[in-house]
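tmp note - Transcriptional regulator
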Amino acid sequence: MLKVAILAYDQLAMFEFSCALELFALSRPEYNNWYQSEVVTFESGSLHATGALQIIARQVHSLNDYDLLVIPGWRTQTKHVNARLACEISAFSAQGKRIISFCSGAFLLAQLGLLQGKLATTHWRYAELFRQRFSQVNFVEDVLYTQDGNISCSAGSAAALDLGLEVIRQDFGHVIANQVARRLVISPHRSGGQAQYIETPIAKQGGIFAATLDWAINHLHMALEVDELARKANMSRRSFDRRFREALGTSPKVWLNQQRINLAKQLLETEQLNIEQLAAKVGFDSGITLRFNFNKYVGIAPSQYQRQFSRQT
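out:
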């Protein structure tokens, strides 16, 4: 059972804190070996949070008992960090234990030097400030989250749920992650590379455009081309590409490949297929193309992913 520490601090950001509680601390007796989570703080007394709330958390002096640390935001306008907290988080990271930051939580990790040379992100509103203060960090904009080694960072607010679901998927598999997402009444998977701020949400598009995307998801086994999707949406290719980027923050081709890889991950967890069979089921023309895209979007080979996450073994 993985033990999770959710960090509480003065001026706590309640939305990100609530996301951490919902993802990792909510009791889920239907799953074996679910996370065992505690809200901890290195500060004494009650903590102040958004809306004049006061929170009393368990005061600790060490993180040795935990396997995963969640940092739900952090103060962006202060450089002061409790010395014991700084020491414990640095030691936690040095042991290779996983750390997740939500939204402005990346500021704390960067201030401790834990993001130097690593990929990281934060809320788009803080992007310029973050770059100015932490030039040694490989800041990535227009993403929902980053994962680099043992440290993951989500962009603002709701992107915390996307990162949390990805961590759950990595720990428990696609089926359980989808069930958790369903309970949250949100999409089970948004790629970490998706733009975090989109001027025209897909929900406002509706009609034939949204129906075309739904149709594509249900026909990923076919050799779909973007031109075909444009015709189905009754648009010129140029208009379709523009509308797609406005709605989803990426290109139709990239989106299609991401959906195919997402399906491939589900099949690798639940079925025993060779690489060519898998490629055919998700719409790639060959196992070579599947391997290339799987490595590109997931970072490991399909075979390695199956060894880690297959429910058939």
